[in-house]
Design a protein that fits this description.
The chain has 262 residues and is an alpha/beta fold. The chain has two domains: 162 residues, NAD(P)-binding Rossmann-like Domain (Rossmann fold); 91 residues, ProC C-terminal domain-like (ProC C-terminal domain-like fold), CATH 1.10.3730.10. Helix content is 60%, strand content 11%. The chain has 13 helices and seven strands. The strands form two sheets. A five-stranded mixed β-sheet has the order 3-4-5-6-7, with helices on both faces. It is elongated and about 70 Å long.
């Protein structure tokens, strides 16, 4: 995910006015590969990254974040005292701004984001919340940087666990639906390659209809369902299988897991 976001930053670099990107990873070969693709720098440790970066993206699992914060905390505190503190940008589910600040300094500038994997193709959704220590100018700059990876939306931090359950985990649910839709096409006699292409394009186009028309999904669904027709028969089959209830429960389960990680 860190690479996906930096790829978006690199794509948007002209709009931003030029940025210098660097990667650090426990596996330095991964950092070198990412840096090579984006023609960026390699930092040989998290400490070096914390010393040089203005925005430090903490692209690690929640279970690893404590160790990373402990490693960079001395540098972060030193820079804070010197008046040139970096903005720590965390994408770890469950880690609140307050919890991060307790590890590196109560006055640390911290932003939390919740991106999703479509950021890899610049179609992501990135929710953003920032601590009061992150100035409006720096928050706006961060938002501009991230726009190369998709849509950026500012939210109150209290919503981020719900965002994790919906848009953070949501792509996996959408991929399951696309796969199942394609399987249905194969069952009906379509070749596998065509079924998958049609399923993916159908979901892509349907999402675009919601975004571009501003109509409620229920209204758009009703536009497709003619009386006694094929679509209402399919909708009935979905409802018999508790389709909507299952999706709601999937988001709820992911949200609950995010709260457990806090």
């Amino acid at each position: 995910m860190g690479f996906a976001l930096m790829k978006g930053v690199a794509v948007n670099a002209g709009t931003i006015g030029g940025v210098n990107i660097g990667f650090a990873d426990a596996d330095e070969q991964k950092a070198q590969a990412a840096a090579k693709e984006l023609k960026s720098a390699v930092y040989h440790s998290n400490t070096e990254a914390a010393e040089k970066g203005d925005y430090i993206f903490l692209a690690v699992k929640p279970q690893v974040l404590a160790a990373v914060l402990a490693e960079i905390a001395p540098v972060a505190r030193k820079r804070l005292e010197a008046g040139n503190a970096p903005v720590l940008v965390s994408m770890a589910a469950g880690w609140s701004i307050e919890k991060i600040q307790s590890a590196v300094g109560s006055n640390a500038a911290v932003a939390r984001i919740m991106p999703n994997t479509p950021a890899l193709v610049s179609k992501g959704l990135i929710a953003l919340a920032a601590s009061p220590q992150v100035s409006g100018e720096k928050t706006a700059a961060l938002e501009t940087m991230l726009k190369g990876a998709g849509v950026v939306d500012r939210v109150e931090e209290r919503y981020l666990n719900a965002v994790t359950g919906l848009s953070g985990s949501g792509p996996a649910f959408a991929y399951l639906f696309i796969e199942a839709l394609a399987d249905g096409g194969v069952l009906a006699g379509l070749p596998r390659d065509k079924a998958l292409r049609y399923a993916a394009q159908t979901v892509f186009g349907s999402a675009a209809m919601v975004m571009e028309t501003g109509k409620h999904p229920g209204e758009l669904k009703d536009m497709v369902c003619s009386p006694g027709g094929t679509t209402i028969a399919g909708v009935t089959a979905l409802e018999s299988g508790a389709f909507r209830s299952s999706v709601i429960q999937a988001v709820e389960a992911a949200w609950r897991r995010a709260t457990e990680l806090a």
